[in-house]
Amino acid sequence: MNVPDLIPIRHEPFGRTRTIGRRRGGCFLASATGVAGRPECYAVLHRFDEAGQHLDSRIESAAGIAEARRVLAGWLDALPGREYGDVAVAPFEVRVDGVLFGLVVEEDDEVEEDEEDYRFTAELYPDQLGFHAPWDGCYDT
């Protein structure tokens, strides 16, 4: 199975995708997240156009997860027409402070022939959420 041009991501109100959805002019992915091996956390807001193409990212370092969540809450409150819900976005990459942020398609050459549908994944960094066939928007951690 091929990777779709737009990766569906399901909104889970009590899960790790609780801060994704639509806004006037497109959609967004947002999170407050830590990065393995680093003391700081980040507030992250990625914005996409109506076609699911990456427009820009707002990423700010914070002293801890509570501070990152406060910063993120302010950004989310300022989004015009914000509605939480499912999204579908194209893969993208942004680097800040040497950290990879984005939705990156990866190939696993070690996949057995009977699991060929799982050869490709789309990994959301640095949140470490993996999306794969059947591309239904559910994630693995």
Structure description:
There is one protein chain. With 141 residues, the protein is mainly β. The protein has one domain. It is built from one helix and eleven strands, in the order E-E-E-E-E-H-E-E-E-E-E-E. The strands form three sheets. A five-stranded antiparallel beta sheet has the order 5-4-3-2-6. A hairpin with a 3-residue loop joins strand 10 and strand 11. It is globular.
Mean pLDDT: 94
Q: How many angstroms separate the termini?
A: 21 Å
Outline the biggest β-sheet.
5 strands, antiparallel
Task: Give the strand order, joined by hyphens, for the main sheet.
Answer: 5-4-3-2-6
Order of helices and strands: EEEEEHEEEEEE
The percent of residues in helical segments reads under 10%
DSSP strand content: 35-45%
Number of strands: 11
Instruction: Provide the number of structural domains.
Output: 1
SSE class: mainly beta
Low-confidence stretches: none
Count of discrete alpha- or pi-helical segments spanning 4 or more residues? 1
Radius of gyration, in angstroms, nearest whole number: 15 Å
Gross geometry: globular
